[in-house]
Structures are given as C-alpha cells and as structure tokens.
Amino acid sequence: MNSSKVILPNSTRIQSGLLSFDAVQPSSTLTCSVTSPERPSPRSSVEGRRLVLNSNALETLLNLLILSEELSPSSWEGPKTTLKSVEELALWTTDMVIPQENLLNHMLLDVSATFCRVPEVRAIYFQQYMGEIQFFVLLSIDRYDSQVMDRLIELEYNIRLKYSQTVFEFFYPPAGSSPDRDFIHPAARCIFMRNGRS
Amino acid sequence: MAGPEIHRSQAEHNKATAKKLLEQQPHHDWAITAAFYAAVHYFECWLFKKYGEHTETTIPINPDGKLEYTAHGWREQLIKTDLSRKAFTSFRKLRNASETARYLSLSRLSPRGSPDWIQSPASKYFSVEQARELVEEVLCRFVDELGIDPSSG
Questions:
Q1: How high is the ipTM of this complex?
Q2: Which chain B residue's Cα is nearest to A159?
Q3: DSSP string covering B42-75
Q4: Taking the complete model, does pTM exceed 0.80, yes or no?
Q5: Partners of B54 in the beta sheet?
Q6: Chosen from A167, A181, A189 to mutate, greatest number of chain B CBs within 10 A
Q7: Do residue A161 and residue B115 have CB atoms under 8 angstroms apart?
Q8: What are A78-110's pLDDT values in tens digits?
Q9: Which residues pair with B67 in a beta bridge?
Q10: How far is CA A124 from each of CA A69, A129, A169, A193, rounded to the nearest angstrom?
Q11: A184 contacts in chain B (CB < 8 Å)
C-alpha cells in the first residue's frame, strides 16, 4: 500500500488505508471510516455492501468527503456503485457546487488529489503572493523529463480551467530524491507529501 | 513599452540566439531561456496587435492601489483565457524549463536549508536534444498558435 497522505487544510492528517462506507441507502447519512489495511488493495472493488478503494482512489475520496459538506448520499446509486478509476471521481466532482468560502480549501484539495497521481511528484507546497495562488510541485527527478512535464502542465491547465477566475502560479522545481528537508520558503504550507515525509 | 514590431523583432533576435546557443555546448541550457523570452515577446506582439495593450498595462489594481498580480502570473492568465490549450501548454513548458535552467531548485525562495538538491548544473540537467525540442518544436508550436509567421531567422 502506498503510504502517501494528503495533508488537510486544517493541518489534520489522515493516514492512507482502506476506507469503507455504506452506500446502500441513498437517503441515509453517508458515513465512512478509515482503517489500516490488512492487505494491499491494488484495485478498487465492491465487497458486499462496501466499497474498498485502492490508495489513489482513497486519497481522492478522502479529499472529497472532507471538502464537501453538501456531499449528498443520493449521489451514489446503491450497492452496484463501482469506482473504476480516480478519474471517475474527478469527473463526478465537477458537478458539485462549492460555496465561495470553501473555494480555497477546495482548490488545495483538488490540486493535491490531481497531482498526487503523478509518481514523480514528491511534495506540494502552497502560498499566497499578491493576489495569486502559488503552488510549488516538487519533483523527484534528477534529469529533465519532457513527458512528465507535459503531463503536469496538462493537469495544471485543467485546474486553471476549473477555477477560471483565479490567477495561479505553478512551479515545478526538481527536488531529486534526497530525504532531506524540502528547500522551500517557511511561509509556504505543505499540502501533500509522498511516503509520509514530514 | 515597445510597439508590436519591436516586440516581434526582439522575439526573432531571441529565437536566433537560442538556435546559436544550441550549437555551443555546454551553453545549450541558456538556449531554453532565450526561447522563453522569444515566446514572451511574440505574445506581447500578438497582444498589442489585438488589444493595443501590454501585459503590464492590463494587470488589475487592488483597492490599495497596488498591482494585484505579478506580470508572469497575469500573462499566463491572459494566454489561458485568450488562446488555445496548445498555446498555453507550450508557453508553460517553456517558462517552466527556463526557470529550472536558471534557478534549478528555486533556492531564491528560501532563507534556510541547503541548496544542493540537484547534483548537476542545468547544462547536464537538460540534454542538448531536450533543449533543441524546446527551441525548435515547443516555441514554434506556440508561435503557430499565435498565428504569427516568423521569419526564417
């Protein structure tokens, strides 16, 4: 199981693990719990009345659950609900209505959930400068990789389209694979770190 | 502020410089920066022809009378809003590579820690082939999207 974790805006940390929740009763309150995995789950699956998510889907769904107070249980169709990929979750969230006051938190979580899917992303830091939202996406590479940059910039473009009124800056500094402390401004806030680094 | 033809002339000068630097190893890393600043001037030429403005003259002002955004940040917002996805991704790829070529680990941002993340200089971080791709393919793609017909220079 990938030990990546998403660092939430209120600094609460949730360790990745298997997450299951009752999706049977559309009108009931959606409840979920996070448990340590007894065995790795490489693919998301449906086991009885529960969805079992792999680590990528788990990270994304945790983001969604935390950010979306208006997440409606009726969004789920019932016991036959399946999650084939993180992309399905991402598509599903595009229809959600986000209150203005939650917009920044939503952005932070969205950026984390989006970029954590790229294995070369080691950590993500965020800071506000003037009126801009700036992200520092640290890469665990030692040589320039054109294909990785293409993928990152495509993801960045999708984020910019989604929050079209916000002016962003994205930086992708190569950070090698050193386990040392990230070399970033102390005012920048970490919103994602792979492999449990802190 | 320069007029559109000056911007275009500067863009073509920067592009020609980028091509020369590609042939002068190990200075090919600076070809990337020259290509990025060619892209900036091509865009400023396009923007002025379309709106009679420069990036810097359109940055919104906040209630305190100060600029709301950086010029780089605002320029990318304009590119995203007014141009194609291909134009945006090409420009961003050039800017990102250019910043990495100049700063490597963005050490300028931090007053603490050790600036030795990367064990090699930009001339080794970028291969000649990668620099050539940025100059000859990515920059040309961006110029194509602007609808500008660059000189052969």
A1: 0.88
A2: B80
A3: HHHHHHHHHHS--HHHH--B-TTSSBSS-HHHHH
A4: no
A5: none
A6: A167
A7: no
A8: 333 333 323 333 333 333 344 455 678 888 888
A9: B61
A10: 24, 16, 13, 7
A11: 106, 109-110
